[in-house]
């Protein structure tokens, strides 16, 4: 497909993130509805052309677990990427509107992410780098797919890592600037699953007087505030050093936690767990606990997880995802 702006009719806005904005468009010549992502990049034309070349690998990423790619083009000074439109949007939108994602659906989400990451790495040596609920999409047929993985090194370099207004799914090793691998994506999967199961970002600071049903045993792991001397630590960098605006807004909870507190918490404290609720099977707890092992050398890779009992069981289980998406109207 030879894509250009003139042939794409804007239908609606789908949302925006750190890197750009996404809209629903109609490619009139092929009568195809697409999602068009416009990325603003402050880079030289040569760099932009390089990014465009690197993005061509996306044409070869064909898997039922991955959102398909129609093409990319330059629309100076932007880069436009057109991909499969997923009409039920992303899991963050879904849980924010409809509440926690049902456990059987979560099993399928884990299967999709584990197999999608395995495909990307085994076949293309691609590390996703941005696994999170907003990059897991759902359509009306009940399909779940991942998107927004880092195919282009130049694109990754050009989009500065900005923490402003975002939660973080970064693994401890990535936060510390150590080498990170495909196992960092596994950490992000663990955090994402807990978020979808709880219906809130797992590191949210429970509001003092909230009626939130946070089980007592979870409060310790959820609370980022002042665990044993962390906050008084003399070595703590001044907030100004990392940018005064680095605040994390935790939608819905009204809680605020600075990005620095959050990063320190992830590095220094025990990882979060799925809630101790009988609706989450034991094997699922074990699987998520493995994803959230802080030491990357002890954490499984996506390939390791493909043979985990919970992943295998969830793969085989018949779950009517179509019936589930039909409830999201
Ligand atoms: P970040 O920029 O940090 O990756 P993000 O994933 O929230 O954050 P975008 O990737 O720009 O930001 O996406 C914005 C929104 O657009 C998403 O939350 C999602 O709901 C929607 N979206 C993205 N891609 C598609 C798609 N292919 N089909 C339908 N909706 C999409
Ligand atoms: Mg995204």
Automatic annotation (TrEMBL):
Residues 207-244 are annotated as: Disordered. Residues 8-311 form the Protein kinase domain. One of its GO terms (biological process) is MAPK cascade. The keyword rRNA-binding does not apply. ATP binds at residue 37. GO terms for molecular function: ATP binding; protein serine/threonine kinase activity; protein serine/threonine/tyrosine kinase activity. Belongs to the protein kinase superfamily. STE Ser/Thr protein kinase family. MAP kinase kinase subfamily. This is Dual specificity protein kinase Fuz7. It comes from Ceraceosorus guamensis.
